[in-house]
Amino acid sequence: MLVVSAAVFDRSTGTGITLSNLFAGWPADRLAQLYAEDRAPGPDAVGTFAQFAPRNAPMEYHLFRQWERIRRPLRAVMLGAAGPAGSTGSTGPALNPAPGTVRAHLRTQLRAFVDLSPVRVPEDVRRWLREQRPDVVYATLGSIRMMRLAVVAAQECRVPLVPHFMDDWPTTLYTGGQVLGLPRLAVRAGFREVLRHSSYGMGISEAMAREFERRYRLPFAAFGNCVDAADFADPEQRAPDRPEGTPVELVYVGGLHLDRWRSLRRVGEAVDRLAAQGTPARLTVHAPAVDVARYAGAFAGLPAVHLGRSLASGEVPGALREADVLVHVESFAAENRRYTRYSLSTKIPQYLAAGRPVLGFGPAELASMAHLAAADAGTVVGIDDPRMLAGALVPLCTDAGMRARLGRQGLAYAVRHHRTDRVAARFAQVLREAAHLPVGGPPTPRAGRHETLTRADAG
Length: 459
Fold this sequence. Notes:
Blueprint (H helix, E strand, L loop, with lengths): L1 E4 L8 H9 L9 E4 L12 E4 L7 H21 L22 H15 L6 H10 L4 E4 L3 H14 L3 E5 L3 H4 L9 H15 L4 E3 L2 H11 L3 E3 L25 E6 L6 H17 L4 E6 L2 H7 L9 E3 L8 H6 L3 E5 L4 H7 L6 H7 L4 E4 L5 H9 L2 E4 L4 H13 L1 H18 L2 H16 L24
Parallel strand pairs: 1-2, 1-4, 2-3, 4-5, 5-6, 6-7, 8-9, 8-11, 9-10, 11-12, 12-13
């Protein structure tokens, strides 16, 4: 098995965690990875590894790296009197450049320009690819450059490609007209090549797999993150005993990007009101350090919201089991809804395996919210309505019996659908099938003008 991805096998990113879990137990002499991330494989990673290093990248890539190095100091200077780097003063949160600002526009244009640049794969890398002698190339994509690299790998090894999609980037990447629209054209062309070399596809959720199978006329299977059996809660374990008057502990673990901080602030406001009305409750947020620094101001003035420390991956299961209620949020903004519609967060299987009820707050049509609803593991508030959110919080914070029942139901669902030993075995079987299927899939008639790339676009 040859894995081509930006993320390396480790436990510091969502994709790295998912890859590590899906390939758990894979024989070390049957697994190789070509990765682009600027970090080493995790200590528990097995297999043969090669980095597609910056030296293999064009000058535009180096320009982008230099931009990333100076961006933070430059941002501090541009903020000026608004406050030090990482804040915008006392009246609002420190955020990414707002859409439409000059800084956001330049950053987006530069990213697109770098991604559009040619991928030059040296002969030593090509030789390394051939030496692995894989039966199939599995790839996580998400950019023009990664599509090109994955296709080169499949061509050099003369084996089928199996792309695994974590988000609906084929229909959303560079649709804002960046660099005169050239990157969007390159996405479409690159995706045609991906489909032309693919025998099977994978989506991170069942909803994505079915939708992509319909779009691209390729067999698809659903595989998201899975959880080691040792990290599952004991079905007989009770929620933590708390003294009378101790706040019910709601916990969020994850990133605040993609506008998730806005939805999480809504939850924090609802918890704060509940606490002020006499129901002891607290929301603790465990986010990456960079997100805490960037968005901490968004939670100012909410005494019932506590910004906890960033957690290492090994600390997450224990932190989840110490909670009374777990919180998952997604953005209600239209552009984010489109991007995340079929996605399933890495932490949702972890949430369910913790045996704690889950409050989901995000658009009802998202696969993540549908997954929580299917697990019957908590309450999903599918519209941005403070009254509905408050109404969902009250029973979760006051009815310990209901919390216990929902937690048990979520745990049982996770055992059936998210245990690593079961998921990894099915994952390996699909890859074995993919190795023996023809590439390209059946042709399909063109379905009119729209941004969705169909199998016809590959023709």
